[in-house]
Design brief:
Blueprint (H helix, E strand, L loop, with lengths): L6 E7 L8 H13 L4 E7 L19 E5 L6 H14 L4 E6 L2 E2 L4 H11 L5 E7 L5 E8 L2 E5 L5 E4 L3 E2 L6 E3 H7 L11 H9 L5 E11 L8 H16 L6 H22 L3 H11 L4
Parallel strand pairs: 1-2, 1-4, 2-3, 6-12
Antiparallel strand pairs: 4-11, 5-12, 6-7, 6-11, 7-8, 7-10, 9-12
């Protein structure tokens, strides 16, 4: 196995022990299935609990793990950039981004390796990620500032101007990631993937859809209004830090943010979300 085939898998965890997450467990099974030996699992732990402590020295794969704990919970973009730099120091050429709620299929690593060996000069490769058995959540179509789920998608090269895709499962050629400047660290969580795609569209016109079926779990729907408000403030600030290439796209996303605000207002039967929305329009960006 040469260095070109080496892969660094970056997992961002939050308030959950990384080796107990679905992502870590299913990734490890996929690595074993592929017989891949030259790999690294880079864990960026955003857990902000005061007494948070994770020990992994008993794990048989501990020598493949790099672990970093960020108690400040700096967000996804900072995590991806930090671990991409770590991957560079390990002389890895490909990184795979993952969050803690992704089910990785057994054939995933094998599929990633095959796509690397095909060497088709496409620097962004994504799996097909399902929200449930019928709906494909990534890649998705960009319509009026929102990602529209698909029923089916063709495997192979696709136009990056027509689609969006989520962070989790995305495989990136590391020199390309470095060339474009990585993720926008002013965006902590929401729109991190959209902003990255907005940026790379200036450099490439294609990405590749791999014949891999991932499943994303969104079971953690917030029902507490105080936590929802805190989360909404981050959402608004992330949107305001989004750097758009075209005014038309800003307008489309603005519509999407307003509709999301109305949805939360209806769910929680509270006008606080609307107040925060209108305040965000006039306040200084953090």
């Amino acid at each position: 196995m040469n260095r070109k085939d080496a892969i660094a898998f970056i997992i961002v965890a939050y308030n959950e022990v990384f080796y107990e997450t679905h992502t870590y467990k299913t990734l490890l099974q996929s690595i074993k299935f592929s017989f891949l030996e030259n790999y690294h699992i880079l864990i960026y732990d955003n857990s902000d609990e005061i007494f948070w402590n994770v020990s992994f020295m008993d794990l048989s794969e501990k020598n493949h793990i790099v672990y970093f704990h960020d108690r400040k919970n700096s967000g996804l973009s900072t995590a991806y950039n930090f671990m991409a730099r770590e991957a560079g120091s390990l002389n890895v050429k490909w990184i795979v981004l993952l969050d803690q709620d992704t089910f990785v299929p057994e054939n995933a690593v094998e599929g990633y390796l095959k796509s690397i060996k095909d060497d088709n000069d496409i620097f962004l490769k994504v799996p097909i990620v399902y929200f449930n058995k019928n709906n494909i959540m990534s890649p998705s179509k960009f319509i009026f500032g929102r990602a529209k789920m698909l029923k089916e998608i063709i495997v192979g090269p696709q136009s990056i101007k027509e689609f969006l895709f989520i962070n989790s499962g995305l495989m990136i050629y590391l020199p390309f990631f470095e060339e474009v400047g990585g993720y926008n660290e002013k965006i902590r969580v929401d729109f991190a993937d959209h902003q990255f795609i907005e940026k790379v569209r200036k450099y490439v016109d294609k990405f590749e859809v791999l014949p891999l079926k991932f499943v994303q779990n969104f079971s953690h729907t917030e029902k507490n209004i105080d936590k929802a408000i805190t989360r909404f403030k981050i959402y608004l600030n992330d949107f305001r830090n989004f750097k758009f290439e075209k005014l038309s796209r800003r307008l489309l996303y603005s519509l999407s943010v307003f509709l999301h605000t109305l949805k939360l207002t209806k769910i929680f039967k509270s006008t606080q979300f609307l107040k925060l929305y209108f305040t965000a329009l006039t306040s200084k960006v953090k």
